[in-house]
Amino acid sequence: MSRKLSSVLLAFVALATCLSSPASAQIPIPPTSAEDRALAQSILKEIIEINTTDTPRGNVTTATAAMRKRLLDAGFAPRDVQLLGPDPRKQNLVVRIHAEGSPKEKPVLFLCHMDVVEALRSDWTTDPFQLVEKDGYFYGRGTQDMKDGDAALVAIFLRLHREGYKPKRDLILALTADEEGGRFNGARWLVEHHRELVDAAFVINPDAGGVELVHGRAVIATVEATEKVYSDFQVTALNRGGHSSLPRPDNAIYELTAALDKLAAYTFPFELNQVTRAYFTRLADQETGQTAADMHAILATPPDRSAAARLSAEPSFNSNFRTTCVATRLNAGHANNALPQTAQANVNCRIFPGHSPEEIRQQLVSIFADNNLTVKYVSDSGEVFDMAPERKAIEPPAPIPEVFEPLTRLTNALWPGTPVTPVMENGASDSIYFAQAGIPSYGFSGIALERDDDRAHGRDERLPIDSYFKSLDFFYSFAKALGGE
Ligand SMILES: [Zn+2]
């Protein structure tokens, strides 16, 4: 019954949305033609099948150079498709569509990373480096994160160029390296060394945000407006070791696993900020039953602890409530018949805005409460330091109407009745480098995905085919709305 009621309410919301914004009802979104869909699919296939992992088998340049060739073949001027970067295997591509005359407004930058996380054939049902069409999905490494966005934006830049589109401000597309790891982060390098190529009024980063589906129903559209800080910590237990035939109570492996058990049992404190508060306020209106009641209860002052605990059972909610730290790797011992001299774990933390990595490092030390253990900070490039940075996550900037107005209008046209809300990203994206350079960044993928089907970095990564094609409809109209008709 509550389901029926909620669909009635949704229908009403959809109607109200149409009535309240006649513009969205009157301006239909032109659907992408079969030819442009086929082109976007062929681009997606091409880049999925180029391994862009940060491994000896991976090469980002192969993919960015292939995109450059497509753009040159379509008539883009060489100076508007620049391939550049500090490493021959990690070249970034920066594409520009020029404004008519001399624009008054600074450009809009679409920021898309081209690298992907390693995927092993033996872990997957399909070959991760083949685009496989199955059961209404595209399977392949990067179908969610984020070669879908790379391919969609390349297809849209090609289409805008073919149609002779002249924006009122420059539109820039950057396809970059080393977002997922590696020492040659393209976004950071471009901001620091070629600001003139990527300088913009704001950044649209399709690496985050998007439309969340629950059983096929769009419940919310999220736009990343702030993000957690990613930090790795190396936890080490040392021991004098010895012969395994003469075991003693002191043992590096036991000591380390005892510490990790304490971490497993520990929950960081519940927190909300302006962005996550807005997110759960919107979401509570879309949910029903206990979940809706719990969401209202955590928004109260003081927040209801048992409601927070119930919602925390859902990992995507939990990550919005607190800093999280989890053991992700173990390495211990040196021989089957020797007592271990070293036991080491990597603990990966996603730190809530307002806290620094050093603060969390010290918190880990007190959680472990073992003076024989060391807790060190591991930088993005893999260097190990005794102390972690004191830098805190950026404060959420005020949302810009020139981004949120068209984004909301187009979202309502494509996914009627879906509220749009700024959110905190629980991973980490390249938006942070632009935010630090004073360029606000908004994450929105244009992709509709089931909430529990987030397979980014995981096995059998997949993307609903209809979601991919709908993202083309979205980004074409969004690019033109931002660029001016
Ligand atoms: Zn990504």
Please summarize the sheet with the most strands.
6 strands, mixed
Could you give the distance between the termini? 46 Å
Helix fraction?
Answer: 25-40%
Q: What best-fitting shape do the alpha-carbon axes yield?
A: globular
Mean pLDDT across all amino acids: 91
Number of strands: 20
Low-confidence stretches: 1-26
Say which molecules are bound, naming each kind only once: zinc ion
Structural class: alpha/beta
Identify the strand order in the major beta sheet.
Answer: 1-2-6-3-7-18
Radius of gyration: 24 Å
Total number of helices: 16
Strand content: 15-25%
What does this structure look like?
With about 475 residues, this protein is α/β, with parallel strands linked by helices. It has a six-stranded mixed β-sheet, sandwiched between helices. Strands 12-14-10-15-16 form a five-stranded antiparallel β-sheet, covered by helices on one side. It is globular. The two termini are about 45 Å apart. Bound molecules: zinc ion (ZN).
